[in-house]
Amino acid sequence: MPRKPALSIEKLTELPAEKLAQLVLDEAERNAGFRRQVKAALAAKSGPEGIAKLIDRRLSGLERARSFIEWDKARAFRDDLQSLTDTIEAELAPVAPDMAMDRFLRFIATHERVFERVDDSSGHVQDVYYLAIISAGKLTNLLSDTEAALLPDKIMARLGETTHGYLADLTKAVTPHLPQPALAQWDADLSAAIDLRKAEEAKLSTDRWHYSMTSQWSEMRQMIAEARGDIDLLIALESAKKPHMQDVWGMAEHLLEAGRADEAFDWVRKPGSRVKGQDDAQSPGKIQLEARILEALDDKPAAQTLRWQCFETQLSADTLRDYLKNLPDFDDIDAEARALQLGLSHPVPETALRFYLDWPRLDLAAQVVIQHHNHWDGGHWHSLPKVAETLEHEHPAAATILYRALLDDILKAARSKAYGHGVKYLGKLTQLAEAADPLLPQGALLHKSGSERTSPFPGRTYPTGFVTGMPRAV
């Protein structure tokens, strides 16, 4: 049977131009997204003004639209938005960066109205806007100094009063690429705007809560300060926040990088210290940062003590690696052996199991599973199957315990929707039975009722539910 010819530029150019044009026209009739791409390509023939005119028509339609978009049309709507931003980036940006930037800002400014028109619980529409912000940030590099100096004013004109957070996101994307004079002027303008807005808000009634743009503008000032390398302004703005709002770890990191370890230590040790998205002040990440600061202060013993104390409680593989890396030659061997033994006596089996999987020491991970064979909760279906699969080849006894816990949880609660997974676990148990049974501790596979039934394996009995059909769905 002859092979079908593969499509390629070379083969397609062999076709007559009229034939190719007809194929493009036919596809454009069927595919709205492709039709828009073709129109953009045709508009590009007349220069950037032609492309900009086409984009402006689509942006105007997006700005005027008010109707709610039903769920079954949301995907097509998302694709239409993506097609619009692709046209700006692929067709207009290479030939007219300043015009492309104006269209990106105009598009990003539509986000609040668009979110009122569509149920975006999946976040797909938001993704289009985030990607547009990233593209705008990259495009900043192509702007002339004159256009770059005008960009902050354009951003504030389009997005200066939006509350969704895209104003700060866009600021973060563009500030690394703006010239220093433009950054300095932007910061001065924001500072003046914050003072004016606070004075206006002070006259308002305090009986009702209201959102203030000053918090987002202050966050933008910090981004600008970071881009300017002004660590003192960055710290001053952070210090002005309420204590529970301060990113003390982030400030400690900035100060450490600036060679100001004494101040970094004060920040990392602040009461209630936290990092954005993480509230545990004793987390491995915080301990590692504090240890680095102690080393910068020439107190390596204190840094090592801190790392070991953290490892004893958290069993963090990353913390242990840092601890061993900073030991003298050959001392790390005994220290590693001592650390690996700690997990076997840790009060939280899940913590010990995670550590041994991360290290990795699968033999010790299996030992933890078997040692705590009555502990595992089959309701942890998001993590236990992967662990069991990791262990099943070299440590079938441990894998059997985990698969059994998963299957028992399904059967006990009669989770009919999970019976397909139950069948899979049952198949795994059947495959592992011959290898795992002689290795399991006494009672590891016993059903809580203690009852037993004859198994399909000659000469063996297994607890009820170990090798069994799935119950009927109610």
What is the total number of structural domains?
Answer: 4
What is the C-alpha radius of gyration, as a whole number of Å? 31 Å
Major sheet strand order: 1-2
Mean pLDDT: 86
Report the uncertain regions.
275-279, 446-474
Largest sheet: 2 strands, antiparallel
Strand content: under 5%
Shape: globular
Q: Structural class, please? A: mainly alpha
Description:
With 474 residues, the chain is mainly α. The protein has four domains: 164 residues, no CATH class; 40 residues, no CATH class; 102 residues, Serine Threonine Protein Phosphatase 5, Tetratricopeptide repeat, CATH 1.25.40; 115 residues, no CATH class. It has 24 helices and two strands. Strands 1-2 form a two-stranded antiparallel sheet. α4 packs parallel to α6, α6 runs parallel beside α9 and α15 runs antiparallel to α16. The longest helix has 22 residues. The radius of gyration is 31 Å and the shape is globular.
Q: What tags apply to this protein structure?
A:
1% strand, 2 strands, 474 residues, Serine Threonine Protein Phosphatase 5, Tetratricopeptide repeat, mainly alpha
What is the topological layout?
Blueprint: H1 9-13, H2 17-30, H3 32-44, H4 48-64, H5 74-92, H6 97-108, H7 111-117, H8 124-139, H9 145-159, H10 166-174, H11 180-201, H12 214-228, H13 231-239, H14 248-257, H15 261-268, H16 284-296, H17 300-314, H18 317-325, H19 331-342, H20 349-358, H21 362-371, H22 384-391, H23 396-412, H24 419-436, E1 452-454, E2 461-463
Antiparallel strand pairs: 1-2
Helix pairs in contact: 2-3, 3-4, 3-5, 4-5, 4-6, 5-6, 5-8, 6-8, 6-9, 8-10, 9-11, 10-12, 11-12, 12-13, 13-14, 14-15, 14-16, 15-16, 16-17, 17-18, 20-21, 21-23, 22-23, 23-24
